[in-house]
Amino acid sequence: MRIVLIMPKPQSSAPSSQSGSSQELLLRSPLLSDEAVVAIAQAELTADGFDFALNHPEQGWEEYLANVARDRSGVDLPPGRVAATMLFAVVAGQIVGRVHIRHALTPALFEVGGHIG
Prior knowledge:
By secondary structure, the chain is α+β, with helices and mostly antiparallel strands. Helix content is 27%, strand content 26%. It has helices at residues 35-46, 61-73, 107-113; strands at 2-8, 22-28, 84-91, 94-102. Strand 3 (84-91) and strand 4 form a beta hairpin. The longest helix is centred in the middle third of the chain and has 13 residues, at 61-73.
């Protein structure tokens, strides 16, 4: 899955290294080639209490990707889980963030984990 957003560059008096008046933000599914970059992001953000990849340390990267695909399909989910889509945000070829979109909420998620943020 790929979603491309064209965003205007923020107005600034500082010179920009990019030409043009906009930059592209690509939202895409995790790739096999993302493993090392995601491991670095996970390590850095764990120190702040944020789980970047939403994976388990004992889980290999290929298993993680299979679980991401399973979560998106909504098939054979563990009890209490709902279908969800994980997308990485990429600007100029660099992962700059992620979004995890639940396709539905359970009553428990509605109360605790179904926030936007």
